[in-house]
Amino acid sequence: MGLKLRINGQAHEVEADPATPLLWVLRDHLGMTGTKFGCGAAQCGACTVHVDGVATRSCLLPAQAVQGMEITTIEGLSPDGRHPLQTAWVELNVPQCGYCQAGMIMAAAALLKAKPKPTDADISAGVDNLCRCGTYPRIRAAIHRAAGQAKPA
Amino acid sequence: MSADRRQFLIGAVATAAGGMALGFLPESAAAADGAAPELTPWLIIEPDDTVILRLPAPEFGNGAMTQQAAAIVEELACDWSKVRPEFASATRDYTAFSVYSVVPQAAAFFGGRSTFLMRVMGLQKVGATARQRLVTAAAAEWGVPVVEVTAANSVLTHAPSGRTLRYGEVAAKAAALGPVAVPAIKPPSAWTQLGKTAPGKLNNPQIVDGSLTYGMDVRVPGMVYAALLQSPVHGGRLKRYDAAKVKAMPGVLAVVTVDPDEARGVAMMSNAPYGYALTAPRAAVAVIAEHFWQAKTAMEALPVEWEDGHGARWASTQQLYDAAVAALDHDQDARVERAAGDVADIHKAAKVVEQTYLTPWCDQAPLEPLNGTALVTADKVEVWHPAQNSQQAFWVASDESGMPPERVVFHQTYVGGAFGRRLESDDVRMVVAIAKRFPGRPVHVIWTREEMMRQGKYRPMVAAKLTAALDEKTGLPSAVVARQAARGHYPRFADTAYFMGPIPNVRVDARELANVHVTPGPYRGPGYNSYGFIQETFIDECAHAAGADPLDYRLRLLATWPNAGWAKALKEAATQAGWGKKLPKGVGQGLAICGWGLNGTAKAGTCVAVVATVEVTPKGALTVRQLDAAFDCGRVMNHDAVANLMEGGLIFGLNMALNEEMTVKDGRMVEGNFDTYPVLRMAQAPKINVHFGGLSGADRYAEMGEPPVAPVGPAVGNAIFRATGKRLRRTPFLKQDLSWA
Ligand code: FES
Ligand code: FES
């Protein structure tokens, strides 16, 4: 069948049922495991990627639907792992188990593209992924820092 | 000295004769390449100064790995940026005579705790031993006395001659040395980094670029995937299934079953820290396929019938709750957990407070669904697993495969949250049980979120009835009877400060609900997470009945409690939150304090005091505006890690109180995903202030993972009472009517 996908600037051809969700094509077929499986029901956001720049949950998204679109995963967010969000995440020691954080960063990256100086309300609305470890206060602070804003009081 | 000599010798022998001779995979790429030899079984220093540390406690979010490394580096005196952590091998620990678990706290050694002083000192010794080998090798190289060589920041210096060598330059020679005398380790007062610096997690860079390998991310050549379905009523059995219906579906390789009743095990004594009884397998059927999506799709298409078993008699959750509450009035099977003084006349007191409370089943719901990978062959089983306790998982893999432990190669992965769910290793048993039906290829078994949530090992449902006689003069409880009913009891109710002296006449008892089929398990702060709510709501009710301020009431009650940290934490949280200020109707502050890890003594563990500020609209919409928390764990070893665990633990405890309830219909668990089992998001996370002013400085570095979880719920519930006059005696709050106008 041959799915034609463009991921992180590279063309891929994948032998998979075209109905396979993008998440599993990335993880199982292409070995790109940075995008996580958390719920499989578009509930948690662990599987967030960018599709044509828009933060999108990939676990229910048939891969055939995104053929021809530009897909970016956590592996392709920056060439060296030093996107301002990634740097801020490390500086503020955001993660606990870390399992949600790739999805959080992808959601936040899309937010910052749309709103380079987000308010607290923007962040609450734009990053509504789930973190079971409860790292929300640090995620919020790290987004502000990456946006070049002082940590709000 | 003799013990250290033995430790080194065993380690050396193990590498030469134990691990390699048995054909185990080496622990690290460096060892595989032969780039650098082991300095000790715990560490390798490469020519470029990279320090590879093998650390026994897994990392599932609490920072244990980083903290272990910090304890070693305190003595090793290497450059922190050169540290590359790995997980120590449970297999090698077994075959090499406890080469890692020789460090104290051995029973829990492959578990999560990292700041217990005995353990820290054991790790310091690991660092000191390695440093001494480097110093000795450098001294030999220069032909100078060992005492003239100093070590700092990965550099060895001979001050008299001004010569220096990097660690990486002498590591190979140091590794070839015979046993060295181990120097004394620094006491806490001489630490230069522990307690003074707060390094961030070592694995943060790999988390943020997506390269960290969780159990879910294991990729082994030839690997296939499995999806599974277990008896929807816990304790049921597989009746029939029709594999022919799915055999021809794309990618499907096999349909296999797991039979709880088949004989299993290895005829030898086990060292599994939690035993095997808690890991009993469930009846299951699994589809194995080339890809997970294929396995899952075929699993959903597979016709399966179940023998439900006795659990199916429970038509609704309410029936179970009613049965639990009814059991509270029967004393014949109750076991007494704590008794002091005399409570016989409790109902004759002038003022009696008596109330019934209930906390529901809750799912730990770590974000990484249960999963694991196993390769079973004729003479070996190899497992890659996100375990909460590697030792437990290692032994369970042996038991399920029937392979003696020296033939179990166990690889610990990173863990996407645990909260108790991955402690007992029933997950590893299921993975191996499926993989052994498909020998010769590595099988990666993945639970869907629904399968995991409905096949949980839940925080037990607990019903409790508390009765207090209030002293006529002080209003404080002079006697309390606390009754509990649960299946899967974790005895923490007796282990709370009020019942350990401050209230003179006490009887705490517990009943086991034998007819309940829902499987219980540890959930962050087992027992404590229920009883904290029950006890701190009850004490608040007593304070109200006595017409007392809740803060003042608790301080008076704790006046004779020998651990002064409790009062200090209470006052700190209250002061910081502005306790006592006038608030409009619909806004309220509530208070609670709970302590974890007392284990029967006052001066132990960690207490956390929380003041919650909430707002409830007349129609009953609740907003938790702010949580102020103060705590006493004695001393703090990593300030920022403690703050992070407090913040996360408070949010975790808040969610437990607001949202979490697993319900039952016809014996089956109902909730299956985050749409019906909600978890707080960014928008609902309150402002959180963690205050360090409650610390007593007492001589311990007690745990921080569990303690914040319990006091949040009662603090919020007590705040709702003060805002609305409505008393909440069960959780979750958001399923209850909070309207007040
Ligand atoms: S895995 Fe896609 S939203 Fe949870
Ligand atoms: S850090 Fe564990 S789920 Fe977010």
Biggest sheet features of chain B: 7 strands, mixed
> Main beta sheet of chain A, described?
5 strands, mixed
The small molecules bound here are:
FE2/S2 (inorganic) cluster
CATH superfamily (homologous) name of the largest domain in chain B = Aldehyde oxidase/xanthine dehydrogenase, molybdopterin binding domain
Radius of gyration of chain A using CA atoms only = 15 Å
Which CATH architecture of the largest domain in chain B would you pick? 2-Layer Sandwich
Percent of residues in β-strands of chain A: 5-15%
Name of the top-level CATH class of the largest domain in chain B: Alpha Beta
Structural class of chain B: alpha+beta
Helix-strand pattern of chain A: EEHEEEHHHH
What is the total number of structural domains of chain A? 2
CATH-scheme architecture of the largest domain in chain A: Roll
Distance between the termini of chain B: 73 Å
Summarize the structure.
In chain A, 31% of the residues lie in helices and 14% in strands.
3D structure, described in words:
The complex is a heterodimer of chains A (153) and B (741). The relative contact order of chain A is 0.16. The mean pLDDT of chain A is 96. In chain A, strands 2-1-5-3-4 form a 5-stranded mixed β-sheet, with helices on both faces. Chain A has 2 domains: 76 residues, Ubiquitin-like (UB roll), CATH 3.10.20; 63 residues, DNA polymerase, domain 1 (Orthogonal Bundle). Helix content of chain A is 31%, strand content 14%. Chain A contains 5 helices and 5 strands. In chain A, strand 1 and strand 2 form a beta hairpin. The N and C termini of chain A lie far apart (55 Å). Chain A has 153 residues and is of the alpha+beta class. In chain A, helix 2 crosses helix 5. Chain B is of the alpha+beta class. Chain B has 17 helices and 27 strands. In chain B, the strands form 7 sheets. In chain B, strands 10-11-8-18-15-16-17 form a 7-stranded mixed β-sheet. In chain B, strands 13-21-20-19-14 form a 5-stranded mixed β-sheet, sandwiched between helices. In chain B, helix 3 runs parallel beside helix 5 and helix 16 packs across helix 17. The radius of gyration of chain B is 28 Å and the shape is globular. The relative contact order of chain B is 0.10. The N terminus of chain B is likely disordered. Classes of the chains: A alpha+beta (153), B alpha+beta (741). The complex binds FE2/S2 (inorganic) cluster (2 copies). One FE2/S2 (inorganic) cluster sits at the interface of chains A and B. One FE2/S2 (inorganic) cluster binds next to loops of chain A.
